[in-house]
């Protein structure tokens, strides 16, 4: 399967713990996007990364959240000291090109975070 | 500030009927208008997309109508089927880079 792979699919954390969500883009894609989905709120953009660079993090909360996309390995979304409000589905998407092109994003199946 | 407003939030349609979902945007810099379909427990997938140089695009039972002057676009699903039951998101982006901003979503239920 050459699609966008996210893991874990489900993650349970207690308040104050850390959550790490991983995303491997489609083969050949070097642009990664993270979105958060809350019930009744649709998909909210968080961050756009290229290999080793954060291009746009305008949707990322200023504290506790960070993202990276290293030269080797998957993209990581890290949430420190989780709170109940962080409970959501986190989707990763990748694209072939960051500009122009078809504009199509290919999404993974999401990581569902539950904070107890 | 919502960059794209989508309505209705939920929609029930009889099998064989037409489903219509509407979206409106403000920023005239947007030049790419995709619709994504999401089934429960899955990620969204691109359904159909349009650029502002055309007023309509049809793919099978799915049609996008685009009104540039009104800054509105809509998705029409003809002959709706129970298998079309899903959440549909309109979205916008500009050519600078592919940051896609989504509407709130419409949960469509097609009943037999």
Describe this protein's structure.
The complex is a heterodimer of chains A (116) and B (112). By secondary structure, chain A is mainly β. Helix content of chain A is 0%, strand content 50%. Chain A has no helices and 11 strands. In chain A, strands 2, 4, 5, 6, 9, 10 and 11 form a 7-stranded mixed beta sheet that branches. Chain A has a 4-stranded antiparallel beta sheet with strand order 1-3-8-7, with no helix packed on it. In chain A, strand 7 (65-68) and strand 8 (75-79) form a beta hairpin. Chain A is globular. The model of chain A has no long low-confidence stretch (mean pLDDT 91). Chain B has 112 residues and is mainly β. In chain B, a hairpin with a 2-residue loop joins strand 6 and strand 7. The model of chain B has no long low-confidence stretch (mean pLDDT 92). Chain B contains no helices and 11 strands. In chain B, the strands form 2 sheets. In chain B, strands 2, 4, 5, 9, 10 and 11 form a 6-stranded mixed beta sheet that branches. In chain B, strands 1-3-8-7-6 form a 5-stranded antiparallel beta sheet, with no helix packed on it. Helix content of chain B is 0%, strand content 58%. Chain B is globular. The chains are: A mainly beta (116), B mainly beta (112).
| N-to-C CA distance of chain A | 33 Å
Category by helix and strand content of chain A: mainly beta
- Rg over C-alpha atoms of chain B, rounded to the nearest angstrom: 13 Å
Distance between the termini of chain B: 38 Å
Oligomer: heterodimer
> How many strands, what sense, and barrel or not for the largest sheet of chain B?
6 strands, mixed
Strand proportion of chain A: over 45%
**Unreliably modeled segments of chain B:** none
Helical percentage of chain B:
under 10%
Largest sheet of chain A: 7 strands, mixed
Mean pLDDT of chain B: 92
Mean of all residue-level pLDDT scores of chain A: 91
Alpha-carbon Rg of chain A, integer: 13 Å
């Amino acid at each position: 399967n050459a699609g966008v792979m996210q893991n874990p699919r489900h993650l349970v954390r207690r308040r104050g713990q850390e959550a790490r969500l991983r995303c491997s883009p489609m083969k050949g894609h070097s642009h990664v996007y993270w979105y958060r989905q809350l019930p009744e709120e649709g998909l909210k953009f968080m961050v756009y990364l290229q290999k080793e660079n954060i291009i746009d993090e305008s949707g990322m909360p200023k504290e506790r959240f960070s993202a990276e996309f290293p030269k080797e390995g998957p993209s990581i979304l890290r949430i420190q000291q989780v709170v109940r409000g962080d409970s959501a589905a986190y989707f990763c998407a990748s694209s072939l090109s960051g500009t122009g092109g078809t504009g199509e994003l290919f999404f993974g199946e999401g990581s569902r975070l539950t904070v107890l | 500030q919502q960059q794209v407003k989508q309505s209705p939030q939920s929609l029930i349609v009889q099998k064989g009927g037409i489903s219509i979902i509407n979206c409106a945007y403000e920023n005239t810099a947007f030049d790419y208008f995709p619709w994504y379909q999401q089934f429960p427990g899955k990620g969204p997938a691109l359904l159909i997309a349009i650029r502002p140089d055309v007023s309509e695009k049809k793919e099978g039972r799915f049609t996008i109508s685009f009104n540039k002057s009104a800054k509105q676009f809509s998705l029409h699903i003809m002959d709706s089927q129970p298998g079309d039951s899903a959440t549909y998101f309109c979205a916008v982006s500009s050519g600078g880079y592919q940051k896609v901003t989504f509407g709130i979503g419409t949960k469509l239920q097609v009943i037999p």
